[in-house]
Write a structure and sequence with these properties.
The protein contains 16 helices and 10 strands. It has 390 residues and is of the alpha+beta class. Among the domains are: 184 residues, 2-Layer Sandwich (Alpha-Beta Plaits), CATH 3.30.70.141; 76 residues, no CATH class. A 4-stranded antiparallel sheet has the order 2-3-1-6, sandwiched between helices. Strands 8-9-7-10 form a 4-stranded antiparallel sheet, with helices on both faces. A hairpin with a 5-residue loop joins strand 4 and strand 5. It is elongated and about 90 Å long.
């Protein structure tokens, strides 16, 4: 079976109800496919019109009535809000692998009045409520996905065409009350969540959803060695200085055990001054290796700017008090000191392998967002590289 690209669009309603994590968990764990790209969109009327017109298809296994319901749904729910004129958010997820379209569609499922409960994403998160006359009273598909690889190609090329103008880190898509000042902060779902095709990335996002904040940007990111060095640069000096006493104590114990004589306090301190920075640099190398796949010393300087081998998901959350709310749910750096119910207590292993990163201040968020570049259009690049630019 040849490689395919498949997409899933998470609808404005599913995003509003914070179902993103649960949907992503199912797609990753049940398909085993590679999450190749992700991008937030605020679709323009033109994109909505062209996408809706491509929905009704003889190749779709759902009956014509359901297709027409989806057509009407797209026009009504993906178009800008008629009351405010504000564009609505959707999230596009792009999966790559063998038989990807069929695998994604089987997890997404179809809609119907007699569907089984809980088997598919649409069973759990979608709704189709009928009245006593068999008329549809309420319809929510939860997600949108193509039925065939040919239609996936057509629709992905369409969304790629609008991915610069209608996608990226979204602006003015959330309404706030008088006196409310929103913040933006960065979250990284770290590489330890992608070692195997599990629901962990989605589960971590589920934890963040209880903040009540809004996702306005998403990117599947492979951090380069250079980016990792810049991103964690402020940590380097902390490691070089903070660990001196710990290194001195361990060095003293090792020397006394090996050589059989005592190290006086002054010389113990000197051991820390000598070895502390070296140990700190070693820890910094480990952090870069964990995030980028290679330590600075393992990669030629000419390759420091190349995307790394390790995958993470970068998210931009927006809302009032966003920085503090996200940090509260995340928990402290050391998972052993994190409170029950926090992400790092639930998913972290140690100080480095601790599930996720979040900016600790607005200043840090601004600096880190400038490095990670969540708005970068990797979605379009993946589509064009797979299908060709024409």
């Amino acid at each position: 079976m040849s490689q395919q690209l498949a997409y899933v669009i998470i609808t404005p309603y599913s995003l509003h109800k914070s179902r993103t994590g649960g949907i992503l968990s199912r797609l990753i764990s049940r398909t085993g496919l590679d999450l190749a790209a992700a991008r937030m969109f605020a679709p323009s009327p033109e994109l909505v019109k062209r996408y809706s017109e491509a929905i009704v298809s003889a190749n779709d296994p759902q009956d014509r009535r359901i297709q027409e319901l989806i057509y009407q749904y797209i026009l009504q729910n993906l178009s800008p809000d008629p009351k405010t004129g504000r564009r609505r958010r959707v999230m596009m997820l792009l999966f790559r692998g063998e038989d990807a379209v069929r695998k994604v569609r089987s997890v997404v499922g179809n809609l119907g009045p007699d569907r089984r409960v809980g088997e598919t994403i649409r069973d759990t998160y979608g709704d189709m409520i009928m009245d006593e006359n068999g008329q549809v009273r309420y319809f929510e598909p939860a997600v949108l996905a193509a039925p065939t690889s040919e239609e996936a190609e057509t629709k992905l090329k369409l969304w790629a065409e609008y991915s610069d103008s209608d996608g990226g880190v979204l602006e003015n898509v959330i309404g706030y009350g008088p006196g409310e000042t929103p913040e933006r902060t960065l979250v990284l779902i770290k590489p330890d969540n992608f070692r195997f095709a599990t629901g962990r990335p989605g589960n971590v996002i589920d934890f963040f959803s209880r903040t009540g904040l809004f996702i306005v940007g998403i990117k599947v990111h492979r951090m380069s060695v250079a980016d990792a060095m810049e991103f964690y640069g402020p940590v380097r000096e902390v490691l070089r200085n903070k660990l001196k006493d710990m290194v001195a104590a361990k060095a003293k114990a090792a020397v006394e055990k090996e050589l059989g004589f005592s190290i006086p306090g002054e010389q113990e301190k000197q051991l820390g001054e000598i070895l502390g920075p070296i140990f700190g640099d070693n820890q910094f190398e480990n952090i870069v290796r964990f995030m980028a796949g290679r330590a600075p010393s393992e990669a030629p300087l000419s390759e420091h700017g190349q995307p790394g081998s390790e995958k993470c998901i970068a998210l931009v959350y927006e809302g009032v008090g966003a920085v503090a709310k996200i940090r509260d749910v995340l928990g402290p750096t050391d998972p052993s000191k994190a409170p029950p119910g926090s992400i790092r207590r639930e998913f972290g292993q140690n100080i480095m392998v601790n599930a996720a990163h979040a900016s600790d201040s607005l200043e840090s968020a601004k600096r880190e967002l400038g490095i990670v570049k969540v708005g970068e259009n990797t979605f379009r690049r993946v589509v064009e590289e797979f299908y060709g630019k024409n």
